[in-house]
Design brief:
Largest sheet: 7 strands, antiparallel
Order of helices and strands: EEEEEEEEEEEEEE
Distance between the termini: 30 Å
Radius of gyration: 16 Å
Structural class: mainly beta
CATH architecture: Sandwich
Number of domains: 1
CATH class: Mainly Beta
Number of strands: 14
Strand order of the largest sheet: 1-4-12-7-8-10-11
CATH topology: Jelly Rolls
CATH superfamily: Galactose-binding lectin
Helix content: under 10%
Length: about 170
């Protein structure tokens, strides 16, 4: 809903990501659902006009619901192009729940964005200039009994303006 964000889908299962909603119960939200993904997948959001500084007291809040053995992980794309996946994971629940977590408390692994598979530990990443922020459960979809759902995500960090490329001719 935020026009200042760009949505990107990654991985071999990206075409199975769906926006879903049910008429019952009446308060069922519109949400991103992974149940029909035939391969690993990831969803990421990118601010159009800025990077995000996730150092210091930066935090993230989200409202999610996972079923089966699905555990939702945070993913980040750094300004140098490296992708990271968090050791923090939000596990299965019987209903929607909100979770807030501090970025400073998270350990990171490299993420292969093509296959959505975690790699080795990545100690002390520079989170002062994050390009994209998203999530994955590192799994294929299993329809309703084994899937991840995200209703909303809030990021509390500091915007860092994107600079235009030097010596680039202005658009006409």
């Amino acid at each position: 809903m935020n026009p200042g964000l760009q949505l990107a889908l990654y991985g071999p299962g990206r075409n199975g990501i769906r926006k879903s909603h049910h008429s019952s119960p009446e308060d069922d939200p519109y949400y991103v659902w992974s149940g029909s993904c035939t391969g690993n997948w990831a969803v990421a959001l990118r601010p159009r006009d800025s990077y995000v500084d996730l150092t210091g007291l930066a935090k993230i809040r989200w409202r999610t619901k996972q079923t089966g053995f699905r555990e939702l992980h945070l993913i980040l794309k750094l300004s140098d192009g490296a992708w990271l996946v968090s050791d923090f994971a939000d596990g299965p629940t019987s209903d929607w729940h909100e979770r807030e977590f501090s970025i400073a408390d998270i350990r990171w692994r490299l993420l292969d964005i093509q296959t959505i598979v975690e790699g080795p530990w990545f100690d002390h990443p520079d989170l002062s200039k994050v390009d994209e922020i998203g999530w994955t459960d590192l799994s294929v979809g299993g329809n309703t009994p084994a899937s991840s759902r995200v209703d909303w995500i809030e990021v509390y960090g500091n915007p860092i303006p994107r600079r235009r490329l030097e010596n680039r001719p202005a658009s006409k």
